[in-house]
Design a protein that fits this description.
Elements: E1 7-11, H1 16-24, E2 29-34, H2 36-48, E3 55-59, E4 71-77, H3 84-93, E5 94-103, H4 115-127, H5 138-142
Parallel strand pairs: 1-2, 1-4, 2-3, 4-5
Length: 143
């Protein structure tokens, strides 16, 4: 963590990963973006951990809604799927030398699901039975 970073954008999740960073770096604060129900849960957890003054929750769909900009770091947590549009949106909120940090459990191969992804793969196959199921690997995300 660069010492000059004071605030970063955390996309998806209740902010639990951010809590660890906030505990380690007293000068750091975070803005967490996810749907309203996840933000509500995150606020409760932040209050229980006495971090509510250093973490802000923004209920939004980070793929569609306007996002705050000007960050040196954006952290993606457990998103599950990645595409060029998402990376472009993140690029637009980062400062010129900003960094993207991805906290994710990647599949071992494009055709092997992690247990945590099986339910969503099953639901997606019901919605689009003709579409093949591919899982994101670390190499694919880097591309």
């Amino acid at each position: 963590m660069h010492s000059e970073w004071t605030e970063y954008l955390h996309l998806t999740g209740s902010g639990v990963v951010s809590f660890a960073l906030l505990r380690k770096h007293d000068e750091l604060s975070s803005i967490v973006v996810d749907i309203e129900s996840v933000c509500q849960t995150g606020r409760v957890i932040a209050l229980e951990n006495k971090l509510e003054k250093r973490i802000t929750y923004l209920a939004a769909d980070f793929l569609k809604d306007a996002l705050p900009a000007g960050f040196d770091m954006v952290m993606l947590c457990d998103v599950g799927s990645f595409d060029e549009i998402m990376f472009r949106r993140i690029h637009d909120v980062l400062n010129r030398k900003g960094r993207l940090v991805i906290v994710e459990k990647f599949a071992p191969s494009r055709t092997s699901a992690l247990l945590s992804r099986l339910l969503s793969a099953f639901v997606n196959s019901l919605e689009s039975p003709a579409q093949s199921v591919d899982y994101i690997t670390a190499l694919e995300a880097q591309k």
